[in-house]
Amino acid sequence: HLLSRRQRQMCKETALVTDQLYNLVAGFLYALSICYFAKGADFAPGGLSGLALLGNYLWGFPIGITTLVLNVPLVLLGFRFVGRAFLGKTVISMLWCTFFQDVAFADQPGYGGDPLLAALFAGITWGGALALLYMRGSSSGGTDFLTMSIKVLRPHLSVGVVTGAIDLVVILLGWPVFLFLYTSDAADDLI
Fold first, then answer.
1. Nearest-angstrom CA–CA distance, 100 and 185
2. What is the pLDDT of residues 41-97, one digit of tens each?
3. How far apart are CA 168 and CA 188, in angstroms?
4. Any idea of the CA torsion for 68, 48, 101, 185, to the nearest 10 degrees?
5. What is the pTM for the complete model shown?
């Protein structure tokens, strides 16, 4: 034991503060991606956030809380496969993301510019958020739990393929919703 008890405690406290600073920035970037860029440009990204965004468009559900509720079964499923430490960190990260989505960005107008740029910026900010979370041994939850659980059960599958397949399903579900929104808006403009 090269470190004294006090030094070990200080290391734990420093790690906790660092984790929360990363969570703070990641939560902001995550909400910026979903609530500003994706919602503003009327598209649903993959994962549970994409499903929550669809729920927001269709029924007015808050994006963050909906994502959190959708996460419950995946958290329970993932507990067996991802371990207690990762799960604990991820739950805290999910709460930060929920706060930023439903409080900080709740009433902010979305990005109204070019949809291609919105998709690009959504990907950059979402990727930045996930990178920060992954760097601290956490995630935003959602389909990460499902991906990791599938990976444990089917180790020959690549994480990218599993994630891509899950995201493709969500994106394809969003396509008719946003197509309907666009055709409805176009019909309203004609009237």
1. 29
2. 988 888 899 899 999 988 999 999 999 999 999 888 877 778 888 888 999 999 999
3. 30
4. -130
5. 0.83
